[in-house]
Amino acid sequence: KVKAELTLSDGRVQKLGEENADFLEGHEAALHTKNGVLEYLPTSEDKSEKLLFNTLRIPKAGVYRVVLSDGTAVWLNALSELHYPVTFGKDSRKVYLKGEGYFEVAHDKKRPFSVVSVSCEVLALGTAFNIESYRTGKISTILVKGKVRVSESMNKKELSPGELAVAQGGKLVVTKANLGKVTWKDGYFYFDQENIEEVMEILSRWYDVDVRYSGSVPKAVIEGTIDRNTSLSEALNVLKDISGIKSEITGRTVIIK
Which of these, 7, 83, 167, 246, could form a disulfide with 96 (CB 3.0-4.6 Å)? Predict the structure, then answer.
C-alpha cells in the first residue's frame, strides 16, 4: 500500500497516503503530496547555513516515493527510512538510508549526491541505482545507469551499469548484477536463487506478517516473479507452484511446513 510517516524538522508528524495535501516546512520549502508522491518545492534561496532535516519512514506493507528539492526521485520500499535535508546546501547533497531505496539522481555537477547506509557510502553523478541494507552488516548496491563510487571502510569501487557491489565486514565485492532485483519499485517481487528464508523475509515486510517454520527449514531455491498487488494467500500459492513448499496462514502468522 502507498503509505508513509513524515517527521518534519520541528518534530511534527504527518501521516501520508494517496490523498493530496499541501503544507510548509519552515521558510525552506512547500511540500505537496499527490497519488503517493511527496514533492519538495523550494520557496526561497538558501538563507541559512544550517540545514533542516526531514525523515520519511515506510512501515511494513508500505511503499512511497519522494522527489527531493533538487529533483532527485527516491522510491522507498517497505520498512525503510530516508533522512534528508529539506533543501540542500551549496556544496553537496547527502541523504541517509535504512532499508531499501531506488534513486534517480538529478544531475548537478557542482554538488555531488551521496547516500549513506550504515557503514557504506555511495557517491553518484547523475545516475540511477538501488541500495538495500535490510540485513545487518550487509549493504548491496546495484547500478542501473550512470556511474557511482561505493565506499566501505578503506575500500572504494566504481561501478559500471549492470554491476552489483556488496559491502560486508569491511570488504567490498563487485559482481554482475541481476537488474530484475530493482523491479520492486514497479510492483513486483523478483526472486533469483533465493532460499525460502530470504523469500519469506521479503514477504513478511510487505504483508506485515510473522513467519514460523514447522520442522526443519525447506531447502528449496526460489526463482520467479510475483505481482506485489496480489494477496498473501495467492503469493503463497505461487510459491507452492514454484517450489512445492506448503504453508498455512493463522491470523498474522505464516507457518511454513
Answer: 83
